[in-house]
């Protein structure tokens, strides 16, 4: 033993260390492999050597090309041996070595001989090996044998041929497609697995022929498929057919539902699960269709087998996202799973319960979760925290117990990702629920007292600086923030200094005390901290005139006016200018950027930040799509593209012509003006100002061979009497796949919710682009493209603003100003459809989770809140009822701070 | 579209997470180091659980993994996120029972390494390139446990029932220990 020391340590588990492969080495085994070349083959010895080779490959060892070839050639000699055990090993090693096509020739004849052998095992394995290594030309030679093998009376041989067919279909589809008849015969086989493999292959062969697949499914669902695996496959094909039919507008009774439902009574659990899952995933599944599937899954929940419980709870968890009411029946079984040994099951059960729970069960649930949280891994905890965040948004009244829970777990041990999820959740709750702000901020303050993550500390400090000064008693946060200056690393200290300054500026009474604190920071050991302190001291020491105040505010809270990327490029260009040498200092203060240039030589022209382009560089399509991700609680990066209200506001204020319009009131969601997959994709965002409306046309050129120039939108406003076109801003150039914006501005009477219809035409100059060089030709052709009409509706003048307690807000409004009326909404498919139509029409925020409607409900009350143009708060209570003929009636009660607005809401509904 | 159920890999690890035998059928792990990283993640995630009496299940990196432990051997079967757990379960059960039969009830690392050729053949008979080939343990063991001298013997009923009996006997003995 070369390592006596190690040996000593391992003395106690001597037996564990034993391995027939101990000390095995590639070189030595390759030497041993020469035994394959012996005239008299020793099957036992050779098998052992092959096992060793396989072992090496399995452990991740790789052979060089030469080594592999050498082994392959000597292995082929072993075909002379009649020993079946050895032959099996030979098959195995050939598959592992995956020889190149010129080497394959050597074994084809041996393998073809085995394919026609009397021994079933040889036939089956030779087929599998051969099909794995051959190419198209050889395949045509053995095609005849393969077709024969498919209908072989031995199921093992037949399965081998069918499975090989499945693999070959990817490389040689035209050949495999000729085997249809034989495969069809396989489906009738008595062997369960042959049936399964034949069905898989037949479907794969016909998959592009929708009608054939539908026929296949139709005939098999009536017949009896014996094998559970084949039955599962059939269920998958059936759901595919159902989907295709729905896509092609064949409405009416859902076909094949009965078949899926009958599979719920199959004796094999895998089939039951497959069918239940298929049903829950049907498009627009009704609660009646769901019920039987939920029932079987509920039974699985109490199974002794973890796999069954997991499968069931996983499926129900998905159902709970779309049909929470359907899952509530399982809540009792689900609650008992919280203590399940298997933590994956327990976590899924909890998140399902959080989705389906009602307001009254929240507290009890939180208690159970608290016990559970201590003994699961971080990754599960994050899932739970995220579920709690959405629960809090759903039931704002329960924020207190949820916030307590979050602050408790925030204090416990945990990794960065977990802590970040909690902090994000608290931030989200503070933003959405004004009542939760003070307690939430204090929890965050306590957290940074003992926070090991610099990133989280700085983010929280930044957030405190924005939210803290607006609370009832801002002074109580100062202690926490100033403590950071004493106790933390430079990054956190610098962030704390910025936050202090924000308090000092916003809260006049605190200013003298903050100034004292900041003065202490100018002796900090870190220069960034000192610089910030000095900078803010001079800002705070200003003379306090209005103009100065405004500048300071912009300085402290304003976001960076130019995209960071543009600034970086401009600065780079500037410093590379040969006549000067510079030292450029840039420091980031939250979103704010200050720049100091120290010129070593007198410069004729100092760098001017105003010269940086404010145009947001558009992003490639792919990236834009990826942005559909959930928003994070903490501030999005400043260079984020212009979407969302903040983004729009920034984008619009960067255009000088629009600066005079005042504050942006509302931006609508993008409205598509073109069909999907047309040459030019255009959607429009309506920006509402007090006396202006700006249409932002987001245009994308989807033709690689074209460059569009001078892109403009011509708007005909003849059907919108109150609007007058003021100006428009054309796009200079629109290259392939880079979205960009054109703007058209209309004037309208101030504060009036004017409505109207606009027709749009896209005009531009087309230039051909050479795809190989990417260069455009000089000459272009003028062209135009008709877009769909655009409407400004009353809902555009309504901003979604939630209230945390609808009842309080409702009672706080004057009952005198209430306006009630009833409306008939005609026949609808479901109550939910009618409710959503009204919500969309009014453009208001739903409150207290009243947007979810049980799918079988016959009546529903929806609570809405919003702010109408002119900053008038509006609350709406809409009661819906449906009669047996699906006629829907609605009673609409509106309370607003201004009676005329309440009447206007009724007008919207009456005219919608 | 891949509609037939697919198995992404089958792993047989020891009680320290080291490979005994593994087989990958998916391109999700192109290099040996990515495979090892996956094995380590699976092993760490499951090692504290008890999957001795019943097959256990977990989710990892958009995969569903079913697993079962016996002595110092850990068996895993991995499938995609959308896969039917019970199909994976039947594959794992087939693998586990076949190995039990082939090792005559002595399911431990030492025995497995001593009969590694049988384990490799066993893997080969259960899954072909990701497609389920066979899940019945007796059939699998029958196809693998070929008597070198008599090629057609193993498929006969008697050998299998004999093997089963021995396995059962071994099991009872280890339980009584």
Summarize the structure.
The complex is a heterodimer of chains A (about 900) and B (about 180). Chain A is built from 39 helices and 19 strands. Chain A is globular, with a radius of gyration of 36 Å.
Description:
The complex is a heterodimer of chains A (912) and B (177). Chain A is of the alpha+beta class and 912 residues long. Among the domains of chain A are: 655-792, Coatomer, gamma subunit, appendage domain (Immunoglobulin-like), CATH 2.60.40.1480; 797-911, TATA-Binding Protein, CATH 3.30.310.10. Chain A has 39 helices and 19 strands. In chain A, the strands form 4 sheets. In chain A, strands 3, 4, 5, 6, 8 and 10 form a 6-stranded antiparallel sheet that branches. The longest helix of chain A is centred in the first third of the chain and has 20 residues, at 228-247. The termini of chain A are far apart. Chain B has 177 residues and is an alpha+beta fold. Chain B has one domain: Beta-Lactamase (2-Layer Sandwich). Chain B is built from 6 helices and 7 strands; from the N terminus they run E-E-H-E-E-E-H-H-H-E-E-H-H. Chain B has helices at residues 32-46, 85-102, 109-114, 116-126, 137-144, 157-176, and strands at residues 7-14, 19-24, 56-60, 63-70, 73-80, 127-128, 131-132. The N and C termini of chain B lie far apart (51 Å). At the A-B interface, helix 4, helix 6, helix 8, helix 10 and helix 13 of A face strand 2, helix 1, strand 3, helix 2 and helix 3 of B. Chain A: It is a peripheral membrane protein. Chain A: Keywords: Cytoplasm, Cytoplasmic vesicle, ER-Golgi transport, Golgi apparatus, Membrane, Protein transport, Repeat, Transport. Chain A: It is found in: Cytoplasm; Golgi apparatus membrane; Cytoplasmic vesicle, COPI-coated vesicle membrane. Chain A: This is Coatomer subunit gamma. Chain A: Oligomeric complex that consists of at least the alpha, beta, beta', gamma, delta, epsilon and zeta subunits. Chain B: It is found in: Cytoplasm; Golgi apparatus membrane; Cytoplasmic vesicle, COPI-coated vesicle membrane.
């Amino acid at each position: 033993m070369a390592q006596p020391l190690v040996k000593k340590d391992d003395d106690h588990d001597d037996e564990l260390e034993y391995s027939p492969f101990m000390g095995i080495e590639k070189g030595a085994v390759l030497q041993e492999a020469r035994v394959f070349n012996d005239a008299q083959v020793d099957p036992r010895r050779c098998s052992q050597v092959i096992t060793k080779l396989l072992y090496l490959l399995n452990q991740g060892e790789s052979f060089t090309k030469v080594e592999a070839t050498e082994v392959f050639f000597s292995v082929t000699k072993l075909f002379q041996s009649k020993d079946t055990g050895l032959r099996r090993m030979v098959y195995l090693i050939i598959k592992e070595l995956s020889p190149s096509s010129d080497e394959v020739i050597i074994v084809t004849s041996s393998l073809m001989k085995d394919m026609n052998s009397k021994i079933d095992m040889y036939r089956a394995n030779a087929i599998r090996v051969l099909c794995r290594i051959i190419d198209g030309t050889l395949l045509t030679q053995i095609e005849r044998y393969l077709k024969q093998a498919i209908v072989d009376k031995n199921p093992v041989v037949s399965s081998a041929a069918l499975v090989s067919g499945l693999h070959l279909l990817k490389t040689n589809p035209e050949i495999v497609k000729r085997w249809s008849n034989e495969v069809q015969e396989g489906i009738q086989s008595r062997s369960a697995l042959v049936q399964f493999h034949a069905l898989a292959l037949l479907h794969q062969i016909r998959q592009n022929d929708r009608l054939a697949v539908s026929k296949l499914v139709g005939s098999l669902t009536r017949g009896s498929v014996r094998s559970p695996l084949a039955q599962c496959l059939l269920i998958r094909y059936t759901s595919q057919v159902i989907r295709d039919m729905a896509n092609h507008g064949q409405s009416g009774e859902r076909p094949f539902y009965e078949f899926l439902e009958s599979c719920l009574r199959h004796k094999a659990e895998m089939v039951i699960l497959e069918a239940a899952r298929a049903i829950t995933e049907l498009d627009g599944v009704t609660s009646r269709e769901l019920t039987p599937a939920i029932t079987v899954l509920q039974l699985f929940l109490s199974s002794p087998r973890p796999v069954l419980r997991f499968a069931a709870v996983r499926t129900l968890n998905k159902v709970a996202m779309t049909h929470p009411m359907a899952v509530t029946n399982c809540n009792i079984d689900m609650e008992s799973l919280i203590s399940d040994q298997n933590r994956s099951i327990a976590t899924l059960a909890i998140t399902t319960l959080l989705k389906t729970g009602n307001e009254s069960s929240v507290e009890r649930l939180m208690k159970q979760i608290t016990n559970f949280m201590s003994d699961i891994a971080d990754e599960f905890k994050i899932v739970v925290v995220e579920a709690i965040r959405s629960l809090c948004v759903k039931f704002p009244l329960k924020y207190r117990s949820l916030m307590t829970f979050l602050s408790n777990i925030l204090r416990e041990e945990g990794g960065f990702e977990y802590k970040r999820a909690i902090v994000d959740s608290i931030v989200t709750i503070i933003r959405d629920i004004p009542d939760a702000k003070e307690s939430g901020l204090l929890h965050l303050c306590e957290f940074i007292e003992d926070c090991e993550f610099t990133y989280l500390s700085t983010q929280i400090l930044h957030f405190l600086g924005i939210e803290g000064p607006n609370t009832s008693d801002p002074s109580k946060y100062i202690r926490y923030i100033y403590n950071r200056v004493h106790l933390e690393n430079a990054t956190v200290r610098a962030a704390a200094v910025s936050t202090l300054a924000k308090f000092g500026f916003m809260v006049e009474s605190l200013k003298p005390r903050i100034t004292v604190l900041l003065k202490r920071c100018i002796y900090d050991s870190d220069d960034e901290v000192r610089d910030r302190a000095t900078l803010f001291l001079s800002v705070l020491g200003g003379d306090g005139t209005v103009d100065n105040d405004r500048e300071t505010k912009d300085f402290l809270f304003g976001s960076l006016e130019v995209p960071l990327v543009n600034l970086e490029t401009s600065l780079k260009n500037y410093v590379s200018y040969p006549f000067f040498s510079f030292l450029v200092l840039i420091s980031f203060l939250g979103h704010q950027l200050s720049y100091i240039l120290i010129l070593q030589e007198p410069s004729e022209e100092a760098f001017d930040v105003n010269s940086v382009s404010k145009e947001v560089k558009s992003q490639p399509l792919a990236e834009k799509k990826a942005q559909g991700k959930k928003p994070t609680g903490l501030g999005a990066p400043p260079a984020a593209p212009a979407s969302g209200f903040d983004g729009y506001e920034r984008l619009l204020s960067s255009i000088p012509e629009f600066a005079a319009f005042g504050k942006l009131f509302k931006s609508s969601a993008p409205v598509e003006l073109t069909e999907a997959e047309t040459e030019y994709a255009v959607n429009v965002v309506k920006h509402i100002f007090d006396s202006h409306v700006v249409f932002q046309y987001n245009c994308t050129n989807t033709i690689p061979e074209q460059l569009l120039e001078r892109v403009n939108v011509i708007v005909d406003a003849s059907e919108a009497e109150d609007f007058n076109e003021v100006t428009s801003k054309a796009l200079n150039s629109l290259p392939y796949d880079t979205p960009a914006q054109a703007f058209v501005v209309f004037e309208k009477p101030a504060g009036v919710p004017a409505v109207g219809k606009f027709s749009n035409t896209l005009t531009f100059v087309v230039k051909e682009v050479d795809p190989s060089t990417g260069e455009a030709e000089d000459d272009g052709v003028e062209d135009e493209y008709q877009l769909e009409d655009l409407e400004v509706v009353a809902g555009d003048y309504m901003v979604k603003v939630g209230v945390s307690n609808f009842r309080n807000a409702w009672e706080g409004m004057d009952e005198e100003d209430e306006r009630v009326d009833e409306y008939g909404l005609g026949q609808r498919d479901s109550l939910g459809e009618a409710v959503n139509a009204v919500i969309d029409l009014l453009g208001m925020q739903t409150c207290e989770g009243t947007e979810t409607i049980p799918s079988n409900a016959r009546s529903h009350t929806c609570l809405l809140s919003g702010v109408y143009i002119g900053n008038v708060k509006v609350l709406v209570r809409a009661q819906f009822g449906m009669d047996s003929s699906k006629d829907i009636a609605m009673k609409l009660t509106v309370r607003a701070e201004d009676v005329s607005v309440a009447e206007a809401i009724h007008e919207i509904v009456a005219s919608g | 579209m891949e509609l037939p159920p697919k198995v992404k890999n089958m792993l047989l690890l020891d009680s320290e997470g080291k490979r005994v035998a593994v087989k990958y059928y998916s391109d999700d792990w192109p290099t040996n180091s990515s495979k090892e990283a996956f094995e380590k993640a699976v092993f760490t995630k499951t090692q504290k659980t008890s999957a001795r009496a019943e097959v256990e299940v977990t989710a990892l990196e958009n995969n569903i993994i079913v697993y079962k432990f016996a002595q110092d051997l850990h068996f895993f079967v991995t499938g995609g996120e959308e896969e039917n757990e019970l199909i994976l379960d039947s594959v794992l059960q087939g693998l586990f029972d076949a190995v039990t039969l082939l090792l005559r009830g002595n399911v431990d690392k030492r025995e497995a390494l001593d009969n590694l050729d049988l384990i490799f053949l066993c893997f080969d008979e259960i899954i072909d390139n990701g497609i389920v080939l066979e899940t019945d343990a007796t059939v699998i063991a029958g196809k693998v446990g070929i008597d070198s001298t008599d090629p057609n013997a193993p498929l006969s009923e008697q050998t299998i029932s004999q093997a089963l009996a021995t396995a059962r006997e071994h099991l009872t003995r280890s339980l009584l220990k």
